[in-house]
Amino acid sequence: MQDLAIETNCVTRRYNGFPALNRVSIQITPGSRIALLGDNGSGKTTLLSILSTLLQSSEGSATILGYDIAKKSTALRNVIGVIRHQPMLYENFSPVEDLDLFAKIYGVSDAGEQIRRLLTSVGIWHLRNEAIGTFSRGQKQRLMIAKALLHKPKVLLLDEPEIGLDQNGLKVLDELILMREEESTPITVLAATHREERMDTWATGFVRLERGQIIETTLSENAR
Amino acid sequence: MIFAPQLKIGVNLLNANLKQAWRDKTNWMTAGMFAVTALLLYSFAFNLTGGLVRNLLPGVIWTVFLFSGIFATAQSFQQDRQDGILDALKISPIHPMTIYIAKTLANILMLLLIEFVLLLAATILFSEPLFTPQLLIIVTIGTIGYTALSTLLSAINLDRNNGGLLLPVLALPLLVPLLIASVEATSASLQQETSTAPWILLLSLFTIWSAAIATLMFPLAD
Question: Does the beta-carbon distance from B91 to A74 stay under 8 Å?
Fold first, then answer.
């Protein structure tokens, strides 16, 4: 049996007794690109927050590449890259300062070169020394794409990564994450999105949530 | 060993916190302005000379230090939370204790800077030599003690939508033993009649206790 990239078993999260996520079980194989669909309040962000270890589940268990997320181990955090709804950036730092700090935290060996390459790829190298606080939402989102890829993660957990991006920004997102050419180690993507019209171009399958429960899944041969 | 990488990460995070605090001066400017104004008011309100000043100065100094410290540290993690930085740190391979220690050390360094400026101002305003090694030690230990607790409490206060109101309510009762020890040690140091040793010992013990408890509790604060 092939090892799973992401596996959740009956993951439940309650807020004041109300289940925002109710017994969600999914199995995603490495290299899959899964769209997480659903209306506002369906539980997409809650599921992604639990998988990125920011939130604890009330019940159930989950693993990413075999690492139990409840243990919040360093090894687990080194293999996940996250884009959340809100940018996670030092507003009064420049992109280089912000990425350099996180490169040190993640122990990225070729930090300078990696930062230059990523900022060039997302098209904001010319803004490398400007304060992030002066950036537009789209520019911040491009920087978040670079930040999520900085430590070369194997699993990407993305919460509406298209937010604020123009056509060029969407192209960057597709090239770097959603439709990137496979490398020796395939990247697994689980991305919450409301842009269902774009989904066919990148997703190998989808999971649809409603009121915290899975109501529909279509996972390709790469995922179950 | 997990300690060495975390130490390296902690030093980088401390630098980032100091850079962030230096560039976004809101909290520190508020704290500094409050402290200078309060000290100035005290100096005009009490026409103090000689021995009298030594009786009141410890209370004046520590009242100003404490409230300016609470002003400065109340929003310690607020900006990080608003910018999403706290989430970015939580999902990174950094131990929560390292996050807390780096933030507390940044707060301590910034507060010590303000306090040394205040001691200089108080030396001029009250014509009392305050830059003695003993007093500097007392101020440093006391500052470490109350900053350790107030930084933890600011993290606990993060998700409570009360504009930082809860911090003084939580912090002040917990800080009473430290304040008593600080004021008594400062008083003994200024009057040079009694030994400062017992009060400095008590102050040190409380500081070690508060720093240890706060460091251990921070991972549970969220």
Answer: no
Query: Which residues are CB-contacts of A75 (< 8 A; sequence separation ≥ 6)?
Result: A67
For the A1-79+153-224 domain, the top CATH level (class) is alpha beta
Sheet-wide strand order for A33-37: A80-83, A155-159, A188-192, A33-37, A205-210, A213-219
pLDDT digits (tens, 9 = 90+) for A23-53: 999 999 998 999 999 999 899 999 999 999 9
Q: What is the pTM of this model?
A: 0.89
Burial of A44 (0-12, 13-18, 19+ CB in 10 A): buried
| A107·B5 Cβ contact <8 A | yes
Between CA B175 and CA B9 the distance in angstroms is: 30
B193: DSSP letter: S
Sorted by where each begins, the domain ranges of chain A are 1-79+153-224, 87-144
Contacts of B87 in chain A (CB under 8 A): 54, 84, 86, 88
* Each residue's pLDDT tens digit, A79-116: 999 999 899 999 999 999 999 999 999 999 899 999 99
Across the interface, whether the CB atoms of A101 and B12 are under 8 A apart is answered yes
